Amino acid sequence: MAPWRIAAAAIALVDEQGPHALSFRTLGDRLGVSHMTIHRRCGDLGGLLDLCADHLAAELPGIPLDADWAEATEARFRRFYELLVAHPGLVALRGSRPWLGQQILARLVEPSLAHSIAAGMTPRHATEAYRRMYLLTLGCASFVNHRDPKAAGSATRAGLAALDPQEFPVLAGHLQEVVPVVTDHEVYNGALRQLIAAAQP
Fold first, then answer.
1. CA–CA separation, 3 vs 146, rounded Å?
2. Longest distance between any two alpha carbons in the chain, whole Å
3. C-alpha to C-alpha distances, 171 to 163, 167, 177, 178, nearest whole angstrom
4. Does domain 3-146+183-199 have CATH number 1.10.3720.10?
5. What number is the average pLDDT over the span 194-200?
6. How far apart are the first and last CA of the chain?
7. Contact status, residue 119 vs residue 72, Cβ threshold 8 Å
8. How far is the CA of 32 from the CAs of 9, 35, 52, 55, in angstroms?
9. Which segment, 73-82, 90-99, 181-190, is predicted with the most confidence on average?
10. pLDDT tens-digit profile of 113-165?
11. Helix (DSSP H) and strand (DSSP E) numbers for the chain
């Protein structure tokens, strides 16, 4: 069983039915093989999730080292963000598990650091800048289900509307301004551009 087939089927299963649906048995049924076939290939659920993450990371762009540093950095991280928000179930399942694997190291981490160093940063400065953008991206993708922004907005609105306006005058009194920001991708894009500007070599 090819790894990419297992990963693609697992991602589709989670996208369609939610993170609770993923198991070796349900995945084996979907692929028409024994759950032990999946188990032998992945080892455990963590191994399966790593396989899925690396499968997605193959979609990250390859950007030449002579491209403009700021533009290349924004393109890499925006695409990483787009992949994460497109698959919230996988992000939820991974939790605090690092997004590491051959593809993500080769298509995001290594080229980001190499590009930053080539642009004039020290290895430490390059790593710090990468880490800030990586954490921003994971955080912005993890806490809102961007595949269903209407539901996310409604849940936020309901929670804020239930607050005592005497105790929370700003949150309860400015719903129209506060709620749309929760699912606005420009919040991430703007923050990413700020980090890039601050790290500019």
1. 28
2. 60
3. 8, 9, 9, 7
4. no
5. 96
6. 46
7. no
8. 11, 9, 19, 20
9. 73-82
10. 999 999 999 999 999 999 999 999 999 998 877 777 888 888 888 999 999 99
11. 13, 0
Share of the chain above pLDDT 70, in %: 100
- Six-digit token string for 130: 């990468």
Average pLDDT over residues 167-179: 91
Q: 59, 69, 53: which is closest to 130 by C-alpha? A: 69
The residues, any chain, with a CB within 8 Å of residue 183's CB and separated by 6 or more, are 144, 146, 149, 152, 153
Domain ranges across the chain: 3-146+183-199, 149-181
- In 3-state terms, what secondary structure has residue 55? helix
- What is the length of the chain? 201
Are the C-beta atoms of 96 and 142 separated by less than 8 Å?
no
Q: State percent of the chain over pLDDT 90.
A: 66
